[in-house]
Amino acid sequence: MCGIVGFVGNKKAAPVLLGGLERLEYRGYDSAGITVINNNKFETNKTVKRISALKEATENGEAICGKIGIGHTRWATHGAPCEKNAHPHLGFKGRFMVVHNGIIENYLELKNELEAEGVAFASDTDTEVIAHILEKHYTGDVFAAISKTVSRLEGSFALGILCVEQPEILYAVRNFSPLIIGLGEGENFIASDVTALVSHTKKVLYMEDKEIAVIKENSVDLFTASGIKIHRSPALVNWSVDAAEKGGYSHFMMKEIKEQPEVIAKTFEPRIKDDKVFFEGLKLTEEKLQSINRIIITACGSAYHTGVVAKYVFEELLRLPVEVDLASEFRYRNPIVDENTLVIIISQSGETADTLAALKEAKARGAHILSIVNVVGSSIAKASDDVIYTWAGPEIAVATTKAYSAQLIVLYLFGIYAAEKRSSADSKLLKTLLDEIRLLPQKISSVFEMEDTIKSLAENHYKMKNTFFIGRNIDYAAAMEGSLKLKEISYLNSEAYAAGELKHGTISLIEQGKIVIALSAYEGLQDKMMSNIKEVKARDAFVIATAIKGNTAIEKEADEVLYLPETHPLLLASVEVVPLQMFAYYVALFNGCDIDKPRNLAKSVTVE
Ligand code: F6R
Fold first, then answer.
1. Whole-prediction pTM value?
2. Among candidates 440, 412, 395, 444, which has minimal Cα distance to 579?
């Protein structure tokens, strides 16, 4: 998704802007640009290549003077990815320059109005209307022009705005698109997320919807759109610069896979005390928890897959009906939700448009909203009744790994917490689960010992086509994630199937040379999986299976077996997903794919 950076201070702006944009590259983009004000003139550089091309063209930005500027990475929505559509965009009088994240829903109406008044458009973007509307409403007061413009825009927008007549002020606006202000010493910043800021400052101000910020070298003032001053204390970000760097790995994805033991420990350790789970500040009272008669989990992509795991866990521990729905479907049906429904929203970024819309839909119907989010201060976190943060740190690779694992941990903990409060599960089972959760970091680390085996499996099969991941129960939930990981980063088609469903049609696709990844670590259903493996073997598929260490029966049927450390079956996805992540990584590597930034994908999907 698009990324914004902005800087005002007492040094060259361009190197800061380019460094910030580089850190936002992970969000996904197809063009980029920066503008600085230099000698009371705008100086703009754009590219349809990578940020490195802009750096090369400008000696890392050092060739551009000027101490105030804005920059942008664009992920095309309105208009093709090309230089004329890349941001920043200039107003028709040459006075305002704008970068924008989000979508202006009434842009056509505004464009028609402007064109009727003789304004010529230089791009196909919705953003350009903002620059022109600013010019139209400018009568000598920049703040007033911004305020009037905000009142005319419908949709989501985070804006960085420069006016050439005020070369010392950077303006910022937020409405349903994230924007953060970084507070430095004699310098201040704006950015779409904190990864772009952590190397400069850890002190941030989270902007709220419809706020306008007036940012100078030595001051930051926040106002409502109507000009009323707002006082807000800054927050401190606890992410380190290292977390946003590769630290010796070739790709963020592998670094993040390897961070999982540490990350999940950070997620659960502070929340388990005396064999009990605690969530600080949870508004979901014990009484409210008792009154819940169903749970709906809604999310997108991998976050949805963690919801699928949670369904098995919650149904076991809470004996409540649990529904898992894709947010993009949930929002467009007529869901049965009331004040006795607990709706759990899961999102790494906290900005996913469909997930946020599903949240609002559920809230409007009276449900209590508990969200599981990684990015502090994100839109989903703000809109929820309760938030449990995953504390996974910044996840830079587009394909999620550590955030997925941290989401699972929060879901397990919540299941245990709620089961204890509702007395719906045996306390011995809850204690066993907590003990097992504590062992997960070391068990996940032991999976890394299989890396060479996984790498050579990937090397032998990286040309595979139409792979099937099959499994039952939690193995099936893990299969969904394994399949998504493979396709999103290696561009190879794969499908996850409930193993028992294969024979109802899909088995006709199994033929010699097809790879079937049979997840068979859920021992309660291993016999059934054995039968499914036999079915695909009989059709000459090559089977890579998973099994729990010591359970060698599967060797009779499968061509290769990846042995997992034993854990409680309800926690199985946490260890089983790891070899699947590594397999996807190496298959993508052997295929020469851009692992951290797969084509067509964005880290934070803020459009429908
Ligand atoms: C896949 C992946 C996506 C996200 C999905 C939801 O690796 O990362 O499928 O899980 O776009 O994103 P969040 O969790 O930010 O709402």
1. 0.81
2. 444
